[in-house]
Design a protein that fits this description.
This protein is an alpha/beta fold and 173 residues long. 35% of the residues lie in helices and 20% in strands. It has helices at residues 7-16, 33-46, 63-69, 84-93, 133-136, 156-170; strands at 22-28, 50-54, 77-81, 97-101, 108-109, 119-124, 141-144. It starts with 6 loop residues before the first helix and ends with a helix.
């Protein structure tokens, strides 16, 4: 017997009942408008509550972000602030756990990390340089995605999708 389940409907119901992690993405100095647009599509698909645009990352007013987002920029809340410290301070004041996605010796492997907070802000960095060390120092946790190939990293929007999905599935609050 096969039972058909609407995963998205289940996720929305859990979120509405308070049983799902509240997840925000913080896009810091992401240079590619296409990557930012992809973040909006991922956020829409997974039920991410909000995207914060920091530094010089383009926002949905940019034509290429809009084109890549395919309308998801209208369904996901977003806010822009050049200063990432201001964003992190706002999120921390709202009891968010700040989690940086970065290759760093302090990083916990994503598949071992279990968010215990009800609200998590996932900080994403520049495609080439990642999250600056001073921003990493503001994070409560650092996580990384295990890599089996010869490359050290994934595209930022792909990494954000993997990390967001895993955080939502593994939340323990």
């Amino acid at each position: 017997m096969c039972i058909e389940v609407d995963i998205l409907a289940c996720a929305r119901a859990c979120y509405m009942l308070g049983g799902m992690l509240k997840l925000h993405l913080v896009a810091h100095n992401i240079r590619s408008a296409e990557n930012v647009g992809s973040l909006f599509r991922t956020a829409d698909a997974l039920g991410v509550a909000k995207i914060w645009i920091a530094g010089y990352a383009p926002d949905p007013e940019h034509a290429k972000v809009k084109k890549t987002a395919l309308g998801a920029e209208g369904s996901v809340a977003w806010e822009r602030d050049i200063n990432i410290k201001t964003i992190i301070d706002k999120l921390r004041a709202e009891n968010f756990r700040i989690v940086g996605l970065e290759l760093d010796p302090r990083a916990i492997c994503l598949d071992e990390f279990r968010p215990v907070a009800e609200s998590v802000a996932l900080v994403l960095g520049n495609e080439v340089e990642g999250i600056p060390p001073w921003v990493r120092d503001m994070c409560d946790d650092l996580i990384s995605i295990p890599q089996l190939g010869i490359k050290e990293s994934l595209n930022v929007s792909v990494a954000a999708a993997i990390a967001s999905y895993t955080l939502l599935v593994n939340s323990t609050h």
